[in-house]
Amino acid sequence: MKNKVNKMTEVGADIDFVSAAVSTSVKTYRQQQKLSLDELSRRAGVSKGMLVEIEKGSANPSIAILCKIAAALGLSVADIVNVSADPLAHLVAEADIPVLWQGEKGGTARLLAGTQGPDMIELWHWQMFPGEAFESPGHPQRTYELLHVEQGELTLKVDEQVLAVPCGSSAVAKTAAPHSYANLGAQPLIFTMAVAEIHS
C-alpha cells in the first residue's frame, strides 16, 4: 500500500491520506532529542498546533512544512517518511515509495529514496499535468537541485529567474531562494529531480 502522505499539498488536503509514518517519526525523533513541542515549533518555524496535529496523525503537512521540521530535527524528509537508510545497500520497494504532493489534476511528486540527514541527497519523480504548478518558499543555504525532463517541458522559476527546460534537457538550481515548477504546456510533464542539502 502506498503511503500517500500528502494529497493537494497546500490546500484542500484529504487527511485520510496522511501517512502514519510521518506522525510516528516526528514524535519519536522529537522525543529522542528531548525537544518540547514549543521548542520544535520555534526551531522549525511551524506552529505548535500544526505539530500537535501532525503527531496525532490528523494533519496533512505540505512538503515545505516537512522540510522545515526535518531541518529543525537535523534529519532529511526521507528520514521522516521512512525511505532512508544507512547500510551499504537498501531497497525501497515500490509499495513503500510515498506520494508527498498531489496536484489538482492528478499530478504527483514521489520521494523515491534519500539518505539520512542532516547532509542529505534525495531522489524524486514528478509528474505534472497541464496547468499544474508547485511552489516552495526555499530551502536552507547550500541546497541544490538537479533536474532532468523526460517528457513535456518544465518551467522552472528560482527567485526572479525563469528557465524553460525542454524534454531531454537538464537543469541545475540553487534552491535556497523561493522556487517553483510548472507545466505550462499542453502535454503531461515528467521529470526526475535530485536534491542535495549540505550543512557541513
UniProtKB/TrEMBL annotation:
- Which CDD domains does the protein's record reference? cupin_XRE_C, HTH_XRE
Q: Out of the domains of life, which is the source?
A: Bacteria
Residues forming the HTH cro/C1-type domain are: 26-80
Query: What does the UniProt keyword field contain?
Result: DNA-binding, Transcription, Transcription regulation
Give the matching Pfam families.
Cupin_2, HTH_3
Entry-linked InterPro entries: Cro/C1-type_HTH, Cupin_2, Lambda_DNA-bd_dom_sf, RmlC-like_jellyroll, RmlC_Cupin_sf, TransReg_Diox_bact_type
Q: Which GO CC terms are listed, alphabetically?
A: cytosol
* A molecular-function term among this protein's GO annotations: DNA-binding transcription factor activity
The record's annotation in PANTHER family points to: HTH-TYPE TRANSCRIPTIONAL REGULATOR, HTH-TYPE TRANSCRIPTIONAL REGULATOR SUTR
The protein's name in its UniProt record: Transcriptional regulator, XRE family with cupin sensor
Which organism was this protein described from?
Answer: Candidatus Pantoea floridensis
